[in-house]
Amino acid sequence: KLSSQTKGFKKIAIASIHKLIRTIYALIINDQLYDYNVATHNQKDFSRN
């Protein structure tokens, strides 16, 4: 049986990969390049809310 820490890690890993795939998909569909400066700016705005 898996420990609760292992289960938690797997959930976090799956969620992170899912978000990465969604981001890559959106960039491809919208024909955009990834811009680190835009991403960090958006992350700062998101963390304020």
Automatic annotation (TrEMBL):
Domain of life: Bacteria
Name of the featured protein: IS110 family transposase
